[in-house]
Amino acid sequence: MDYRSIMNGGRKDPLAAAMRGGLWVASRAYAVGIWKRNRSYDSGQNVLRCDVPVISVGNLTTGGTGKTPVVCFLAKWFRSKGIRVGIVSRGYGRGDADANDEALELYARLPDVPHVQDPDRVAAAAIAVDELEVQLVLMDDGFQHRRLHRDLDLVVIDATNPFGFGHLLPRGLLREPISSLTRADLVILSRCDAVDEERLGWIEQQIQNVNATLPIVRSQHVPTSLLEYPSQEVPLSKLEGCRIAVVSAIGNPDAFQETLTKGGAEIVASRALPDHDPYSPETVESLRTWIRSMGDSISRVVCTHKDLVKLCTDSLGGVPVAALVVELRLSERQDSGSSDSAEGALQALLGQVAEQVTVEEDC
User: Fold this and answer.
1) Which of 127, 253, 338, 349 is in Cβ range 3.0-4.6 Å of 272 for a Cys bridge?
2) Around 72, how many Cα atoms within 13 Å sit in the side-chain half-sphere?
3) Contact 109, 72 (CB under 8 A)
4) Environment class of residue 306 by beta-carbon count within 10 Å: exposed (0-12), middle (13-18) or buried (19+)?
5) Within 13 Å and on the Cβ side, how many CA atoms surround 23?
6) How far apart are CA 125 and CA 200, in angstroms?
7) DSSP-derived pairing of the beta strands 319-331 and 216-228
8) 62 has binding-site annotation
9) Is 181:60 a contact under the CB 8 Å cutoff?
10) 67: annotated binding-site residue?
C-alpha cells in the first residue's frame, strides 16, 4: 500500500479519508507522549555528558532527508583539522548483523573513522571515547535522542518534503513538532536544487517563524561518480542517455530517481523496497527475475550506496550494477550578497567545537 498517497491527501477515496481520520487520532496520542518526553529533557533530567564534544546530526521527519552526506562532510572537515572523529548511531534495521546499511556505507566512505552502533547512545559514545580514543563524537540521527548531551545540534531538512506532510506520526512523517527547532543550532536544507526559489523561501520562512535567529544553510546532493562493487569508480558521464532500472531501499526514492533523471539517465523501470530492507536471498532472486524480464531494454541497474553495500555484487540478472555516489555541496541564496555566507555560518560553529578539542588537549 502506498501510505504516502494517504498521508499527503493524494488518495481521495472514502477508505483513504477514513484512514487519515484514524491516523490523525493516533497522532494526537503520539503528540502527548512527545510533549511529556521533551518536557522532561528540557528540564535537564537524565541528560548525560560525554568527555569530548558531541555534534548531533538529526531531522524532524522519518525517511531519508540526506543525513549521511552531511555526516561524511562533517567527519572529513574535522579529520582535515587533525581531530580524531567517531560516529555513534542507533543501528536501526541491522537485525542480527554487526552493522546496518548506513554504517556499511560510512565504513566504505570514511575508512579512518570508527563507527559504534548501539540504541544506547551514551554507551556508544563511552566506547568511542574510552576504547577508540576519539576526540569528537558525531551522533547520527540524534535530534530526538536527547539523553546524550550535545554541544551542537544540526537539523537536516529535505527541501522536497520539509515538514512530513504537516502532521506528526502516524498521520504524517513528523517525529516531533516543527516548534522543536527552537533547540536547534543550525538547519541544513538538503536537495535545494530539486525545488524552486519560491518554495525555498517559503520553507525558510516557516523555520524562521519558529526560530527567527536560527541559521539556515542551503545544500545540494551532488552526484560525483558511479561505484561498481567492490570499489571501482566509473565516470558519471556513463549515465547520459543510459536506459536503466532503479533499485532502492531508502526513505525518499522519488528524490533519488529525480537525481538520476537530471544526470541524463532514462529510467525504464524502478523497484522501491522498504527503507533499510536487508535484501534477503528471496528479495535478491525476485530482483534478478524482474531484471531478466526486461531483456535488452536496459543496460545498467543503478542503486544507492546503501543498497550496494548489502547487495555486494557487480551484476543482477546479467546486467551490470552501479551505485550513485553523492556528496554534500553548500550553496547560496540567489539574493545573497556574500560568496561565503552559507559556508561561513556552518564553519563558524564547527570552528567553535574544534576549539573545545584543542583546549581539552592542552589541559
Assistant:
1) 253
2) 20
3) yes
4) buried
5) 22
6) 35
7) antiparallel
8) yes
9) yes
10) yes
* Residues 314-337 as b or e (16 or more Cβ within 10 Å = b): ebbbebbbbbbbbebbbbbbeeee
Output b/e per residue, 142-178; b: 16+ Cβ within 10 A: bbbbbebebbbbbbbbbbbbbbbbebbbbbbbbbbbb
224 marked among binding-site residues: no
The answer to whether 65 and 59 are in contact (CB under 8 A) is yes
66 is in an annotated binding site: yes
Q: List per-block mean pLDDT (blocks of 10 residues) for the chain, which spans 363 residues.
A: 81 93 96 95 90 97 88 96 96 69 90 94 96 97 96 96 95 96 96 94 97 94 94 94 96 90 95 92 97 96 96 96 95 56 84 82 42
Are 325 and 225 a contacting pair, CB within 8 Å? yes
Strands 115-117 and 266-272, how do they pair? Answer: unpaired
Is residue 9 part of an annotated ligand binding site?
A: no
* Residue 58 is assigned to a ligand binding site: no
DSSP H helical ranges for 131-252: 197-210
Cα–Cα dist 356/333, whole Å: 31
Residues in contact with 242: Cβ distance below 8 Å, sequence separation at least 6, in sequence order? 264, 265, 266, 299, 300
Helix, strand, or coil here: 137? Answer: strand
Retrieve residue 267's grid coordinates.
529510467
Locus of grid cell 524502478: 270
CA distance 20 to 7: 7
Contact 329, 108 (CB under 8 A): no
